[in-house]
Amino acid sequence: MKLTLKIWRQENANAKGKMVTYPIDGVEGDMSFLEMLDVLNEDLINKGEEPVEFDHDCREGICGACSLQINGEPHGPDKLVTTCQLHMRSFKDGDTIVIEPFRAKAFPVVKDLIVDRGAFDRIQQAGGYVSVNTSGNTIDANSIPVNKHDADDSFAAATCIGCGACVAACKNASAMLFTSAKVSQYALLPQGQVEATERVQNMVRQMDLEGFGNCSNTGACEIECPKGISLENIARMNREYMSATSKG
């Protein structure tokens, strides 16, 4: 395939960025989106030009580092996949593809397509942990019965990879889906009850401090999430927060 790529180029966080157009040829349908960018960068390097900086790690849909805005959609046109799992057969010969970093005040651009998502780490550090000793003094898993529905919901929330697609999809750049997933995975299990009250308050407080917007209630976050994290988690976090704050 022959494609036209319009890519956001920005030297650093303080520089003024711009869209730069690159033609690319020889793209195969079974290439992943990142492999296509590798081909582009190899060509740029051979020409003595600066390659396009983009984030990636596992390339298996697990780490979430490859987050890109592709034709206006986080992770591109396919659903329930990350950018590294998106294949070029989703595009047609002659297509123009616009590639940008995730846009949010709380995700400042580092360079080109790379953004700093440290805000997510700080939200997690504010309360996304348990004090229960889970190593060296292992307790029988069956000693505390857990409702199967609660266990399933907890595991579903825990599949969040913190990629930031929810933030990029939201018109208010809200991090409610991410934060609620991290709250929910503990709120549903007995191991998470020790810090339950402090957890939700601390994580919501940190989320606000990072500059994320309010929930827009449009559901774009769930639609664009590569792991299909449910909006039910936001409702659960709101209940947890109301309960925690009412206790004084």
UniProtKB/TrEMBL annotation:
Superkingdom of origin: Bacteria
Essential cofactor(s): [2Fe-2S] cluster; [3Fe-4S] cluster
PROSITE patterns: 2FE2S_FER_1, 2FE2S_FER_2, 4FE4S_FER_2
Domain 4Fe-4S ferredoxin-type, first and last residues per copy: 151-181
Domain 2Fe-2S ferredoxin-type: 1-103
A Pfam family: Fer4_8
Transmembrane segments: none
Family: Belongs to the succinate dehydrogenase/fumarate reductase iron-sulfur protein family.
Annotated NCBIfam families: PRK07570.1
Name of this chain's protein: Succinate dehydrogenase
